[in-house]
Amino acid sequence: VSKQSAAPPKGTRDFLPVFVRQREHVVGVIRSVYESYGFQPLETPALERLEVLSGKYGEEGDQLLFKVLLRGQPLVQGIEAARAHLQEPGAVITGRSGQVAPKADVLLSDLGLRYDLTVPLARVYAAHQAELGPIFKRYQIQPVWRADTPGKGRFREFYQCDLDVCGSDSLLVEAEVASAAVECMGRLGFEEFSLRVNHRGLLRAVMNQAGIEASKEVDAITALDKLDKVGAEGVEQELTERQVPEAARAQLLGLLKDGATLDRVSAFLQGHAAGAAALADLRSLFELLEGTKAASRLKFDFSLARGLSYYTGCIFELTSKDLAGSLGGGGRYDGLIGMFLGKDVPACGFALGLERLLLVMQERNLFPADLGSLEILLAGAPGESVRRVLLLSQLLREHGHHVSMIPKPEKPGRLRKSAAELPAAFAIWLEGGTLHLWDRKSDATQRNLDEQGLLAALAEHHSGIHRTGPP
Amino acid sequence: VSKQSAAPPKGTRDFLPVFVRQREHVVGVIRSVYESYGFQPLETPALERLEVLSGKYGEEGDQLLFKVLLRGQPLVQGIEAARAHLQEPGAVITGRSGQVAPKADVLLSDLGLRYDLTVPLARVYAAHQAELGPIFKRYQIQPVWRADTPGKGRFREFYQCDLDVCGSDSLLVEAEVASAAVECMGRLGFEEFSLRVNHRGLLRAVMNQAGIEASKEVDAITALDKLDKVGAEGVEQELTERQVPEAARAQLLGLLKDGATLDRVSAFLQGHAAGAAALADLRSLFELLEGTKAASRLKFDFSLARGLSYYTGCIFELTSKDLAGSLGGGGRYDGLIGMFLGKDVPACGFALGLERLLLVMQERNLFPADLGSLEILLAGAPGESVRRVLLLSQLLREHGHHVSMIPKPEKPGRLRKSAAELPAAFAIWLEGGTLHLWDRKSDATQRNLDEQGLLAALAEHHSGIHRTGPP
Asked: Cβ contacts (< 8 Å) between B21 and chain A: which residues?
């Protein structure tokens, strides 16, 4: 087998120890914040029945699902059915990325890999509603899979860190969700970041007030969403291309000119009932958060649209200075959680993007020093009792130390060199029947210690040193 | 959509909060033990290229792989190829479980779901050998997927908790791996358990000494492995069925009679060189572990075979009293980790079976009390300032408390009822402009507190109470 074939699949990654520890650090911080808000952990299977996933993420989403092949007799039948389907006129479509055979995949598959954490939440909520109580606050930190084109910061397997409140339409939920998101960022060491906020109802009301007909609403909001990237002129050009009438364009551009503050949008919406309700939501949210840590981070941004699909109320997006794109987002979506129940369930949530957070934290070196490096590397010098070294390792662990033992006799100089390379904070060895402790930081060695002396010396060192590794 | 369709796929499970916390507790204990032995965490993608997985787990394993369907143009071609394959004579096989089309699945798939954690370790070791150093001690706790028939305690998605040392042939590695396994069990609260130990070289030598020809060796060891379940008579019957000659059978049964102790096996192997080497390994291991916590748990068991596939030296199995089957197992396997390098790499490891551990721990109630139950449920009585309640929740969190706020005004009696049901340790409410603290345990309420009084009262309560939730 050639060396090349040891690579993981395209768009996926192996995480060596340093990177696992970085991820665990970030997940640990996020989880501790989510827990402090009383959210409860949920985990769902990586596999979902294909019918649960299909049609939930739009046409593009259906194509990006990783589908699992049928097995046994159903596979034999599926191949026949797929072949028959391919022979129908127009069954094979040739597009930019080559030929595809829509629907053939569904004939060959019964399961798909989890694509997000919201559809599984809706499914679990339907299956266990009684157990979960009237208000269910859950967080879920698990990988999802999408057969997307991999690129910088874009992977086919990546983690989502979701928190959602199901069953309440109170704005206190928005306030709590926004606070938790801001607190995560602060605890992770981010200093310059904002939580942009807007309201789906506000966007729709403005489009309506500007005279944009309902059929063009989505087009206009999509254009507006690009303000950050293309500026007001770019938005105007896109509105023109999408055939938004000139009068409506002028109204919208007038609002954007000099910045669409909450007051300006409010003046623009004078007399619009749905618009007034959305404005009241936003003003209440700002008032609720006054004096909290989230207040200074919350910025009204009229151009924020967060895609368009399922949000119904307030929407949020976390952005950091000098970083294109978002570090997380969320909002209220009252029509989704009830999809398997056949009724609406109010819900509001937020998701942090773990991969982007890690990327930025790696660039800015926001990780604690010595994250998970080894504490003690231990060995016996040649000729010493191997069993005594083994018993010493047990004694050290009983006193809470993390110890890796070299599984062969080792000369002290070599041991110290290995400890420096790993790195380990200390090297300990048995030589001449006594114990010796080397401190990497000071390059000093304490010699001829007995067990009690060694434990005391380590305790003294540790009064100043942060012991590492997960708790 | 009907209620029934909210179920997860066959053989998989949704984990509601209580069960997530139980799993996290067990994984946390295992991880902390593995870390204390200096093992480093590794994580690999859920998906592997199919060629990495194929042929590594035997013919049955190939059939139990979850395979991911091709996408785009390759799918169109794959369907044609699979159809052509099905038309070849004998391509479809009818067996007990219906028709299958061997090889058709490989024509339709490029990726498979992770089947174990050992093949990914071998792949990562080949890709990163230089970085990983001469001796790589890693642990990996991730789910694997097998399209097995689900049953009690048998799932299609389940966690493995592996630790392995790659790059050393020292028996100190076996000693360390055995110690770590025993320590996990002790720390999880198990009291009656054994770590059974045997040696693949010993088994082969005994078969050889008994006059069983090489071609019958696997058959004979497979029969012997069932001693636990079927007794000596059952083993004899199976040996007969598998056409092991009578003289050899008699020798083997003679050894089993009255128990095959290390001394009896040693006497039986008199003059057998490979047997003597295996015996020396086992005796050295017992000597090394003398005086350690593992010593009292380690039991030589000549009938232990641990399947047959890839072990080359010492083999281990964790068993608990009154529980059929094992809670974990492992051993030395020097021929596997180098599979992608084209050379042998000595390795020894152990895997704990998370699902079985959890099952037993649930039956025996081995979890800490109040695992992850909520600390504080908070609300304002009707008419009180919602914002003040929100600010109070922030203050409490700043002091390290876990607080869930009810997102609407709530009467104190109802609040206490909800706190009792959840359960939460405390209910706190704002009423008449002051704060009130109810302790679920004592059913006592401290009334009319200010913020500082509340924090002091909580601190006093907490001097005796274990705060829950992950750290």
From this structure: 41
Beta carbons within 8 Å of B59's beta carbon, 6+ residues apart? none
Determine whether the interchain pair A31/B287 forms a contact, defined as Cβ–Cβ distance below 8 Å: no
CB contact under 8 A, A92 and B76: yes
Who contacts A7 (Cβ-Cβ below 8 Å, separation ≥6)? B49, B127
Residue whose C-alpha is closest to residue B281's, from B195, B199, B348: B199
Side chain identity at residue A133, one-letter code: G
Q: Using an 8 Å Cβ cutoff, are A68 and A112 in contact?
A: yes
Task: Tally the residues of chain A.
Answer: 471
- The C-alpha angle A22, A23, A29, rounded to 5 degrees, equals 95
Beta carbons of B51 and A5 less than 8 Å apart: yes
What phi and psi values does residue B181 have, to the nearest 5 degrees?
-60, -45
Under-70 pLDDT residues of chain B: 1-4, 308, 464-471
pTM of the model: 0.93
Q: Which two tokens stand for residue A311?
A: 């949000």
Ranges of beta strands (E only) in B235-279 are: none
pLDDT at A366 over 90: yes
The angle that helices A171-188 and B386-398 make with each other, rounded to 10 degrees, is 20
Closest CA to B158 of B351, B296, B349: B351
* Residue A310, min C-alpha distance to chain B (Å): 19
Contact between A214 and A196 under an 8 Å Cβ cutoff? The reply is no
In the three-class reduction of DSSP (H, G, I as helix; E, B as strand; rest coil), residue A399 is classed as: coil
**Strand, helix or coil for residue A404:** strand
The 8 Å CB, 24+ separation contacts for B320-324 are B320/B190, B320/B192, B320/B193, B320/B194, B320/B360, B321/B192, B321/B193, B323/B360
State ipTM: 0.93
- Alpha carbon distance, N-terminus to C-terminus of chain A: 40
Alpha helix stretches (DSSP H) within A39-114: 50-53, 58-64, 73-87, 104-107
DSSP H or E stretch at residue B435: strand B434-439
Structure tokens at A347: 């819900």
